[in-house]
Write a structure and sequence with these properties.
By secondary structure, the protein is mainly alpha-helical. It contains six helices and no strands. It has one domain.
């Protein structure tokens, strides 16, 4: 008789990841018109990123993060058409750098993108090993785009 295998899709961290995806999709739907609901779903999805624990969850987290940022930037480009080029450039850099870095880590046979040898890249080492640096870099990036989003509803487009 075949040995039963655990269903990784039902691990709690992965269920949280699926919840993140659902919240992100809800936020995308409401972004153009309902600031408070969209922000609540988007921020909750982003905060749930702290709960991971499986390889599948790590992959799902990266995809959810990149998709969330992309959809927010698309919305910002509709709010601020004069800044579309810069939003596109920022998005292209974000996706390209994350993809290249994760692909390189995979080719090197590493088990996680967060394990950095100091001799390879000291900046990335600090980024991934110092939780304060990681938090403020990620939070600062998200806060900037979130501020542009909220400003559209409260002060009008810049």
């Amino acid at each position: 008789m075949a040995e039963e295998r655990e269903n990784i899709f039902l691990f709690v961290p992965n269920l949280i990841g699926f919840g993140r995806v659902i919240l992100a999709i809800i936020s995308f739907y409401f972004m153009p018109t309902h600031c408070t609901l969209a922000c609540t779903c988007y921020i909750t999805s982003a905060l749930l990123d702290a709960f991971d624990g499986t390889k599948f969850g790590a992959m799902l987290d990266q995809l959810t993060d990149r998709s969330g940022t992309a959809c927010l930037m698309v919305t910002l480009a509709t709010f601020y058409p004069q800044w579309t080029f810069w939003l596109q450039l920022s998005l292209a850099i974000d996706i390209t750098c994350h993809w290249l870095y994760l692909h390189t880590v995979t080719l090197q046979g590493k088990t996680s993108h967060k394990f950095i040898d100091m001799s390879e890249n000291p900046i990335m080492h600090v980024y991934y090993t110092n939780k304060t640096v990681l938090f403020f870099m990620c939070a600062g990036n998200e806060a900037f785009y979130a501020a542009l989003y909220v400003m559209n509803f409260h002060t009008g487009p810049i």
